[in-house]
Amino acid sequence: MDAYQSVLLGVLQGVTEWLPISSQGQTVLVMLQFLRLEPAAALSMAIFLHTGTMLAVLLRFRADFRSMLAALFRIRADRGSLRGDPRSQLLLRHIVVATGATAVTALPLLYFVARMIESVEHATLLIGCLLILTGILLGLQRRARTSYRRFDELTVTDMVLAGLVQGFSILPGISRSGTTITILLMRGITQELALRLSFLMSVPAVLGALILFELGQVPAVSLRSAALMVLSSLLAGYLTMDLLLRFAARVNFASFCIVLGALTIVLTQLPQLGYFIY
Fold it and tell me: pTM of the entire structure?
């Protein structure tokens, strides 16, 4: 993989991460169809690419993470008491609950993904189907107009549900941000809070994926290429985050995902259709 390909993948990850169109699905498709990587290697590389955008979230929301770390140390020092900043401690506990729920769905799906994408055709077909599912979920999100609940009204059930659906984003084609924001909006959470929680939840989820997934399957790349991918996704992600979030609020990505998913399925099946015709 040369420097241009590394930067291209990093920028693609950095831009699409903030759009509800599954950045993982987009990067895997590019690696399968244009870079000709094997499915398992492409999926591992797509997970690795999240390192840069995870760092972008840490930078953008550094105040929240700093307050949660401070709350964690206070909880340990006070042996679980609620002394200190209760709001930061509550935020920390919400993120911990969501992360635990994410593991419930993500861990079994890791095994499923490894068995389902043994060939490029199977992987591409799966991504196409899941993009359509993402489009349907986004259509539901656009109907969720009853956002009124704020931070103090968050419940454990809200975070468990958000965490469970986040786990499904291990499947390439399922948008992590799209699914988590959708479920929170459907629970009546305000859009601003839903976006913030979705970003904060992503950091431990990405860390878990990097630790648990078989990154040994990542194709041999130089240290320079890996650094370029992380740096370009970090810069592209950080610089475009606010702009793309405002853009995403005005665009109907439900139709985009459904059309792209359908086109992906059709293109995957063209060789089989040709076989039956001839």
Answer: 0.86
Whether the Cβ atoms of residue 232 and residue 52 lie closer than 8 Å to each other: yes
pLDDT in tens, 164-221: 999 999 888 999 998 998 899 889 898 889 989 999 999 999 999 888 765 555 666 7
Cα distances from 262 to residues 79, 104, 151, 190, in angstroms, run 53, 30, 38, 32
Q: How far apart, in whole angstroms, are the C-alpha atoms of residue 127 and residue 175?
A: 11
What is the identity of the amino acid at 205?
A
Distance CA 97, CA 105 (A): 13
Residue 198 in tokens: 């979705």
Nearest-Å Rg of the Cα atoms of the chain is: 19
68 phi/psi in degrees, rounded to 5? -70, -40
Q: According to the model, what pLDDT value does residue 116 have? A: 66
Encoded amino acid at 148, one letter: Y
